[in-house]
Amino acid sequence: MVDERAVGMLEVYGLVCAFMAADSGCKAANVTLEPFDKNKPANADSLPVPLLVTIKFRGTVDDVTAAVEAGRATAEALTGVVTSHVIPRPTEHTLKMLGISGFDVN
C-alpha cells in the first residue's frame, strides 16, 4: 500500500520555536508530526539561535499546507524561519528520510 499523504517541512531557529510552530500547525489542520530533526550549521554563531530544527507534518495537501502556513506565522513572530516546503506525493525514498532525526529519541 502506498502512503499518499503529503509532507510539509518547516525549518526554524531553535527548539522552543519548533514546539510552538508545531503546536500551531497541529491546531490549524488535521495533521500528524514526524520526528523533529536538528542541524547546527557551521555558521551557527552568526545565527539568531545556533540550532536549526525541522518540523515535519503529514496529512492531505490542504491540511499540510495550512499547518505549514500556521507554523510559519508563529515561527516568524518568534525566532524566525529558514525555509518551508510541501511535497504533495513523496516518493518512497523521500518517506525513508522522514524518520531521520538528530535528536536522541527513545
From TrEMBL:
The keyword Ubl conjugation does not apply. Pfam families: BMC (PF00936). GO terms for cellular component: bacterial microcompartment. The keyword Cell membrane does not apply. SMART domains: BMC (SM00877). It is found in: Bacterial microcompartment. Residues 6-99 form the BMC domain. Keywords: Bacterial microcompartment. Belongs to the bacterial microcompartments protein family. This is BMC domain-containing protein.
